Amino acid sequence: MTLDPRALRDAFGTFMTGVTVVTAHDAEGEPIGFTANSFSSVSLDPPLLLVCVANSSRNFATLTQADGFAVNILSESQKDVSNTFARPVEDRFATVSWQPGPHGSPVLADVSAWFDCAMHKTVDAGDHTILIGEVKAFEATTAPGLGYARGAYVTAAAEAEALGHGANLFVSALIERAGDVLLVDDGNGGLTLPETRVGKAGASAALETLIAGLALDADPGFIYSVYEDGAREHQHISFLCQAAAGTPARGTFTALTPSTLMDIADPAMRIMLERFASESRMGNFGVYFGNQTSGHVRKVVSGS
Ligand SMILES: Cc1cc2nc3c(=O)[nH]c(=O)nc-3n(C[C@H](O)[C@H](O)[C@H](O)COP(=O)(O)O)c2cc1C
Fold first, then answer.
1. How many H-runs (helices) and E-runs (strands) does the chain carry?
2. Is the peptide bond before 47 cis (omega within 30 degrees of 0)?
3. Which of 4, 33, 237, 291 is deepest in the core (most CB within 10 A)?
4. Is 148 near ligand 1, meaning CB less than 6 Å away?
5. How far is the CA of 287 from the centre of ligand 1 (A)?
6. Beta partners for residue 154, in sequence order
7. Which CATH superfamily is domain 155-298 in?
């Protein structure tokens, strides 16, 4: 049976990935790099990762002979960096800030994370070559990563826009720090997540204002839950956010114990937080679509 290569490429593309820029130095010491979404972690001990480079890449010889390379995981604001490093631009590094990482390969500014690697092994794999790197140094920030699926970039902001701006749309911030979640007084003796109504500026703007009002250094990671509150006829989008150190202007970071969960008055929110508590224990997140009593969990995927 012959497979249609275009259909196969499209089928591979349904899987949402992050976007990286793989960098190294050429023999003259000049930085080189290209956009790649074939990144994967491989091993913790020893610390290994992989990325695949097309055998037709202009940088193929440099990369396969390099004694190291870096993988820069792009953040949501770096679509233009991805485009620059995917096109035949003369000097791809002219428009980005970068510096040599501890192991020597170029590390880009404002990325979600970077890994500076020594070359561990190259493996022939059809029309690509797998570069396996041993991580020598890395840094990860809380900045959400840029996603890619079906030939389009995916960001939490774009997903929120896709959900529209209904008059009864609310965003809540599920802000996590070291396993605890920020809960605020709901005004009726119970607890709730910080939430606000979405105005004309859209869901991401509402979330930004909400986080700013809490005086916390927190980044929206991804949409954790979308649900309808039948009683209040509200639609909710809950963003999972990671907070850095600091005291919030209101509320307290609280462990989601069964007794704390009992204090969440809104049943839909309580069900969502019960799920969050159990998924935190398992380290496995999905996105919940449903209403207060039924629904299903599906992986975060956005259309093109
Ligand atoms: C989102 C995205 C992901 C990509 N992933 C890869 C990849 O994993 N491996 C690869 O060889 N090319 C990948 N490409 C294509 C290269 O970035 C592109 O062909 C680039 O021009 C190669 O540059 P070079 O020939 O200068 O090395 C990707 C492009 C985009 C936009």
1. 7, 21
2. no
3. 33
4. yes
5. 29
6. 147
7. Nucleoside Triphosphate Pyrophosphohydrolase (3.90.79.10)
Tokens linked to 253: 């970071």
| CATH 2.30.110.10 for the 5-149 domain, yes or no | yes
Q: Domain coordinates of the chain in residue numbers?
A: 5-149, 155-298
- The pair phi, psi for residue 162, each rounded to 5°, is -60, -25
| Per-position pLDDT tens, the chain of length 304 | 789 888 898 889 888 899 999 999 999 999 999 999 999 999 999 999 999 999 999 999 999 999 999 999 999 889 999 999 999 888 999 999 999 999 999 999 999 999 999 999 999 999 999 999 999 999 998 888 999 988 888 887 776 666 665 668 899 999 988 889 999 999 999 999 999 998 888 888 899 899 999 998 887 777 888 887 766 677 888 998 888 888 999 999 999 999 999 999 988 899 899 988 887 765 544 444 444 444 444 433 322 2
Reduce the DSSP state of residue 155 to 3 states and report it. Answer: coil
Question: Among candidates 253, 249, 256, 262, which has minimal Cα distance to 189?
Answer: 262
Tokens of 4: 């249609």
DSSP secondary structure string, 100-121? E-TTSSEEETT-SEEEEEEEEE
Distance of CA 116 to the CA centre of its chain: 20
Q: Residue 26 Cα, ligand 1 centroid: separation in angstroms?
A: 18
- The closest of 147, 145, 132 to 22, measured between CA atoms, is 132
Strands 113-125 and 40-43, sheet pairing: unpaired
* Reported pTM: 0.69
Distance CA 17, CA 230 (A): 34
